[in-house]
Amino acid sequence: MSTAPEIRAPRTTSATGRIAPQYKRSGGSKSQFEMLAWLFMRLSGVVLVVLIFGHLTVNLLLGQGVHGIDFGFVAGKWADPFWQVWDLAMLWLAMLHGTNGVRTIINDYAERDSVRFWLKMVLFAASAVIVILGTLVIFTFDPCPHGITTGLPDFCPAA
């Protein structure tokens, strides 16, 4: 009669007698931030699919398609507050969704606390700059620039 070999519990001593490697990270927070971030990724992904397909349908399938996209097309679109809010929501959700995804990757692969901290600081700074500049462009865009008389949308006084 043979005896079965002993099966050790995971992360205990290995066959060589050494302790299995484990990450040495600072204590995790006891808040629900990671669960809320996970939930945000799922919900924002669904909303982004709707926003992006709406954006692509209006810009590429309706009207003249890709050949109709020019300054006048964008100016006419952003003259309507609905499209400003639509594009703003798409910008903000895409940036927050992508930033959260890259934050998760940094947490998974950066082993040292200091490296993880600085990578996330660079990520958050870059994301903030892009969101701020994008928001400024959407809301300060002038569809009727002064001094230009050709190629303007029909609603501009100089056209």
Automatic annotation (TrEMBL):
SUPFAM superfamilies according to UniProt: Fumarate reductase respiratory complex transmembrane subunits
Cellular component GO terms held in the UniProt record: membrane
Source organism: Sinomonas puerhi
GO molecular-function terms, A-Z: metal ion binding
Domain of life: Bacteria
InterPro entries: SQR/QFR_C/D (IPR034804), SuccDH_FuR_B_TM-su (IPR000701)
Keywords in alphabetical order: Heme, Iron, Membrane, Metal-binding, Transmembrane, Transmembrane helix
Protein name listed in UniProt: Succinate dehydrogenase hydrophobic membrane anchor subunit
Localization: Membrane
Transmembrane intervals: 39-62, 82-106, 118-141
Gene3D superfamilies in alphabetical order: Fumarate reductase/succinate dehydrogenase, transmembrane subunit (1.20.1300.10)
Chief place where the protein resides: membrane
